[in-house]
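Let us work through a complete example step by step.
Step 1: write down the sequence.
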Amino acid sequence: MHYTVKKGIATRGRWIVFATTLGIAAALAAGSVPAFASTGTTEVTLRADSEQVDVTVPTTMAMAIKADGTFITPDAANTKIINNSIFDIHVSSIKATTSGTYQLVTQTTFQGATQPDSLWLSMTPSAGTPLQLGDYTTASAPTTPANWNMTKASKDGSSDEISLASAGAIKNISKTATTAEKALTVTFTVAAGTKN
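Step 2: predict the structure and record it as tokens.
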């Protein structure tokens, strides 16, 4: 239906509202109060969203090869994972992916490795246990998860962090890298909460 206003006459819809208002006024005048109010509760829940984690990880770790094949690694103070979130987080998985001809092995299998460009690399979180990246060629949770927990950032702006000390070596080199060349990529996945 279509309603219009002509010469100050209200639309039908407005008359309905007016009639309803009169009905309420009449009921109040008669002393009875209709029950229009009721109460209800709504539970509001909060959770830390792992997709909203704010974390800083090292983008590069430049290493040099010494004459005996061992690596000169960066200072742990310069290779940190930093929690900038307002809730606790942990590294939930680590994955190391090699590039080009590089082969990743563990320190224990390194001596017997015969493949070209075999390397081992470990990372030690702060005062924790060394983690052999050769054991993490598929995404896996750290074997000592408590070493990879970080508490929430504080109100004063300070953040919890994990310093990464590294060590490693290479053997059976098939080429001489006179410029920096990517050997592997380490992927850290972080999630809300802590693990023990």
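Step 3: interpret the result. Confidence is low (pLDDT under 50) at residues 1-29.
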